[in-house]
Amino acid sequence: MSTATAMSSSLKHHLALGLRFPQNDALCRRYGARISTFRSFTVRMAATPTTPLEVCVKVSVTTPNKLGDCPFCQRVLLTMEEKHLPYEMKLVDLANKPEWFLQINPEGKVPVAKLDDKWVPDSDIITQSLEEKYPDPPLMTPPEKASVGSKIFSTFIGFLRSKYPSYGTEQAMLNELRSFNDYIKENGPFINGEKISAADLSLIPKLYHLEIALGHYKKWSVPDTLPYVKSYMKTIFSMESFMKTRASPDDVIAGWRPKVMG
After folding, report:
1. 247 phi and psi, to 5 degrees?
2. Residue 253 and residue 61: Cα distance in Å, rounded?
3. Mind listing the pLDDT tens digit for each residue in 61-80?
4. Could you tell me the CA-to-CA distances from 71 to 58, 90, 201, 231 in Å, in that order?
5. Rounded Cα distance, 92 and 143, in Å
6. Across the strands, what pairs with 119?
7. What is the mean pLDDT of the chain?
8. What does DSSP assign to residue 54?
9. Residues 220 and 173 sit within 8 Å (Cβ to Cβ)
10. Is the pLDDT of residue 25 over 80?
11. Is the backbone of residue 8 left (phi > 0), alpha (psi -120 to 50) or beta?
12. Are strands 112-115 and 87-92 parallel, antiparallel or unpaired?
């Protein structure tokens, strides 16, 4: 079991006493298995847990001791990063499910986070619980905006798995992307306006998978006719919190291979 801790050069968050804390620079909802490594992340300690929150996430299948390709795990990690919460990742191998992990979550899926001494599954429940328990900074998206872009992921999967253009799956995805493009044009740069919110943190890992998987398997990219979608992706993909929690392109490609080839 290995542990790695590094100081982030861009750490901007301070305590009232002006102290700084080290931040780990290391880097998903599928199945769980043996622990590959533990990594501690500390960003801001004011009004945060005194010990890092534990979160089980998918391990890379291409690089040892690195984060895997689950967009739901990245959503949870992004939420913790944006809320400046200390956390400890438990990287788990998806090929085997040890008894300890099945006891934590009988469904054997990740992410699973330990909150108030209870293991909580499902990225929806985890992120909502984090918002309620650690409301500063606020990330809640107003209910009327929470579903913006929510159909993009399912239409992306349909297009990725489709073998025939006549099925209309590409057009279905483009329709959703066009609707999102128009929304961001009028309401952006983020879903809730000027500040990033929970809806963005849910959507952007999926758009990352869309970009990588479709680029590899379909030689497809977001068209220039959707400039606001492209700008939205570029902006969030360049955020430090996103870069720290993203999977490698090789892992994304490997993760989707069974669905494409199978």
Report:
1. -85, 160
2. 11
3. 999 999 999 999 999 999 99
4. 10, 16, 10, 20
5. 34
6. 114
7. 85
8. E
9. no
10. no
11. beta
12. unpaired
The dihedrals phi and psi of 112, each to the nearest 5 degrees, come to -135, 130
Yes or no: say if 67 and 59 are a contact pair by the CB < 8 Å rule: yes
Nearest CA to 201 out of 31, 79, 117 is that of: 79
Catalytic residue among 28, 56, 70, 73: 70
106: how many CB neighbours lie within 10 A of its CB? 9
List helix spans (H) across the chain.
Answer: 71-82, 99-104, 123-133, 152-161, 169-187, 198-217, 227-237, 240-245, 249-261
58 contact partners, CB below 8 Å, separation of at least 6: 28, 30, 67, 68, 69, 70, 73, 91, 92, 94, 110
Annotated active-site residue 70? The verdict is yes
Q: In a 10 Å sphere around its CB, with 0-12 CB exposed, 13-18 middle and 19+ buried, how is residue 19 labelled? A: exposed
Omega into 49 within 30° of 0, i.e. cis? no
Q: Using alpha carbons only, give the angle 78, 52, 131 rounded to the nearest 5 degrees.
A: 45
Least confident of 47-61, 74-88, 148-162: 47-61
Q: Which of 42, 50, 38, 49 is nearest to 2 (CA)?
A: 38
Residue type (1 letter), 228 = Y
pLDDT at 23: 44
Query: Quick one: CA dihedral 126, 131, 132, 133, positive or negative?
Result: positive
Could you tell me whether strands 53-58 and 87-92 are parallel, antiparallel, or unpaired per DSSP bridges? parallel
pLDDT, tens only, 175-199: 999 999 999 999 999 999 999 999 9
- Look up residue 44 and give its amino acid: R
